[in-house]
Specification:
It is a single chain. By secondary structure, the chain is mostly helical. The protein has one domain. It has six helices and no strands. Helix 1 packs across helix 4. The longest helix is centred in the middle third of the chain and has 27 residues. The chain starts with a helix and ends in a 6-residue tail after the last helix.
Length: about 160
Amino acid sequence: MDTLTLLHVAISLIAIAAGLIVLRGLFKGDRMDGMTLIFLVFTGLTDFTGFVFFPIKGQTPALTLGAISSAVLIVCLLARYVFGMRGVWRPVYVVTAVMVLYFNVFVLVVQSFLKVAPLHVLAPTGSEPPFAVAQGVVLLAFIVTGVMAVLRFRPRVW
């Protein structure tokens, strides 16, 4: 693995780890200002390095997901830092934060099936049932936790 790919992967894993901690905080109504900043910055860096470090040779699913993730991240940043999570911006923040975390985990599952030998054997093309089941479980988990987070996150606003 070349240095730029390794850096991109490290940034992505930091974003995912921080995002999972922030998700736990959402359940407790904890703003987690510092960890949230780490999560959002590293998520932005994940998107940025995905566009900059890798050659773009036509439209790919990765580019599409990166563009969607970037757009959702911008809304998340606006909801959190510009609109202070007031009113409708509280659930907008929670939903968009959970969405960008899901996008990162989605890519982690894709890459795991591509790069981890025992998983690759189960789904060499990414169209086999084990891959679909794994992604379905991840999606369902994020839908459930996202709904729970929206219902439970009631922080003090600025």
